[in-house]
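Teaching note: in complex prediction, the entire set of molecules is handled at once rather than each chain in isolation. The prompt given to students was simply: 'Predict the structure of this complex.' The entities are:
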Amino acid sequence: MAADEVRVAIKLGFSSGDITLIATAISELARNILSYARQGEILLRTVDGSNRTGILIVASDEGPGISDIRQALRDGFSTSGSLGMGLPGVRRLMDEFEITSEPMHGTTVKVKKWKQ
Amino acid sequence: MVRKRNEDVVVFTQNTTIEATESNQTAPRLLRELVAHLRQNRTPLREEWVRRITEAQLLTAMSKPEIFAEATSVYDSYVVALETGTFEALQNYARSLSERIIPRGVETHEVIGIVLLLRDVLARSLFAKYQGNFEELNRILDAYEPAANRIANTVAVGFVQERERIIRQQQEAIRELSTPVLPVRERLLILPIIGVMDPQRARQLTEQLLHGIRTNRAKVVVIDTTGVAAMDGTVANHLVLTVQASRLLGATVIVTGLSPEIAQTLVTIGVDLNKMNTAGDLQGGIEQAERLLGYKVIPIAEAS
Amino acid sequence: MEVPILKQGSYLIATVQGALTDADLLELRAALLERVVRMRSQGVILDLTALDVMDSFASRTIREIADMIRLRGAATVIVGIQPEVAFAMVQLGLTLEEVTTALDLEEGLAYLNQKSKEARI
Ligand SMILES: Nc1ncnc2c1ncn2[C@@H]1O[C@H](COP(=O)(O)OP(=O)(O)OP(=O)(O)O)[C@@H](O)[C@H]1O
Ligand SMILES: [Mg+2]
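The expected output is the structure of the full assembly:
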């Protein structure tokens, strides 16, 4: 599923280690969309910082949203009886992490990884 | 030093912009004339250039014949660049020149200095030639200046790039040296960490260790931190991740020589030290490793 | 992509060939359990050398596989996890602490042999 996205990262010149991290993060975000919102989209873009380039991943859906974001970001918190590692893990895998969510309206997670 | 190099680049980039505004239609004919002039006076102009280089005490790391040989090559590539308007040959030459002279300690300002000198030498010879015809002189200078600037730019940027590449390479080598993964005996790796640990170095260390485990088929790794005075939370956390990742590859990690400060940092970030294999010092770690590997450790007293 | 399972002596060796979908993983779980029971296997080696991404679902499923196999009296060893994958896993918080790991197939077999030798004593 993440193969095409990963190719973008390869083109950007990420190391194989970083590509694995990026692919894993994308997989987690996609999985959350499928489990909790059923459908949504994942966009990838290159981003230019002042003296670096990176990749921006935006995972958004119009699903049920998250009522307590702080709780959802905690290791081990899950409403589906799963490990509860997805969101906090993605946060650790990537360099920048931003989440907005409105109950009943949906969730958007934006993450960035900068090229080393 | 980094700042200075960057400034150099900026200066020359500005020159390039001037070039764009000054180009005009009569340039091709004038450039042809110019090229012919430079070809005719190849020997005296080269000699004059080398004289000026020596006078300005540039390229002092090189002998006079060496300077003359390099100057000849630069001169010829310079003329070709003027004639054809393509800078590839000059660029390649600038690269290889840089490769040769950088290890000998030639500085950026020297390289920029010599190209500027060449520009000056050539401009003076044009003055001398067109003394009587002021208008023609102006026109030929107009055609010459932008091309000369672009050439200077090409050479200088080539040099700076090459230099940065070499510096990067050296830094890489130093970093690798400072975190050697040592295969001490079959299936056992020792990773002595010495010096300051920053996140970048920690990352590199992890990468080296994990690949080292594969290539050496290691079953036990001793990470010795005796040489590290302190670690911040980020780096300490990285150490923990490295231990866990090593286990996923099938290797057991023993951490030795943890200073009380680092141990404290680990506890602060929530690491259960009981879950980590530790030993007071490297020797203790190696003994523990050998037990894990199934070697019998015989105390020195008994063995002798 | 289906995961082939080979029988070698009293062990089963499952070699992942490439990226796995969730369905592939669940299928693998079912197939392994069925065979462990039917063949009375003493050990299972799951070779992940060809896997280049391991997310929370894959990790959880693998843990479940190991748990269920243990309940049937056999041991599981995970072998071949790539360095990059291992690092991504631990960053994600997936340490597979309860599962035995080994470098490669050879090491995995050595582990299982050692274990059955100990059991016989
Ligand atoms: N896109 C989303 N829409 C609605 N709720 C979400 C979404 N993503 C995450 N959540 C909520 O946040 C909780 C934590 O998510 P996280 O990915 O960290 O764990 P998980 O999905 O429950 O378990 P794991 O990812 O480890 O299998 C989820 O249980 C769910 O309640
Ligand atoms: Mg999740």
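Point out the following to students. The CA atoms of residues 62 and 288 of chain B lie 57 Å apart. The pocket of adenosine-5'-triphosphate (ligand 1) is lined by residues A 28, 32-33, 36-37, 61, 63-66, 72, 77-80, 82-88, 107; C 56 (CB under 6 Å).
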